[in-house]
Amino acid sequence: MITRQFTITAEVGLHARPATQLVQEASRYSSHIELEYNEKKVNVKSIMGVMSLGIAQGATFSIIIDGHDEEEAMKGIEALFTNEGIAE
């Protein structure tokens, strides 16, 4: 299992387009991927789950990945966050 914290840098937060991009990236992997924010955990492969958290700019959250391709999945998510200016 891998856990990493990120901070939202996008002005719109993790809303609509950035959330959709995250769900699409997470869906490429077979590992179980969760996002934890304010003591709530959601499945990152669920757009409704991610959107329900309402994560705003400046907020810190964790991505938790467990599975056989967890390292590849974390690298893909980190690259998405960096390349799209979503989080750091």
From TrEMBL:
CDD domains named among the record's database cross-references: PTS-HPr_like
Location of the protein in the cell: Cytoplasm
Tagged with keyword Transport: yes
UniProt keyword list: Cytoplasm, Phosphotransferase system, Sugar transport, Transport
Cellular component terms (Gene Ontology): cytoplasm
Pfam families registered for this protein in UniProt: PTS-HPr
The HPr domain, residue ranges: 1-88
Cited InterPro entries: HPr, HPr-like, HPr-like_sf, PTS_HPr_His_P_site, PTS_HPr_Ser_P_site
GO biological process: phosphoenolpyruvate-dependent sugar phosphotransferase system
Transmembrane segments: none
Function: General (non sugar-specific) component of the phosphoenolpyruvate-dependent sugar phosphotransferase system (sugar PTS). This major carbohydrate active-transport system catalyzes the phosphorylation of incoming sugar substrates concomitantly with their translocation across the cell membrane. The phosphoryl group from phosphoenolpyruvate (PEP) is transferred to the phosphoryl carrier protein HPr by enzyme I. Phospho-HPr then transfers it to the PTS EIIA domain.
PANTHER family in alphabetical order: PHOSPHOCARRIER PROTEIN HPR, PHOSPHOCARRIER PROTEIN NPR
Family of this protein: Belongs to the HPr family.
Listed name of the protein: Phosphocarrier protein HPr
Organism: Pseudogracilibacillus auburnensis
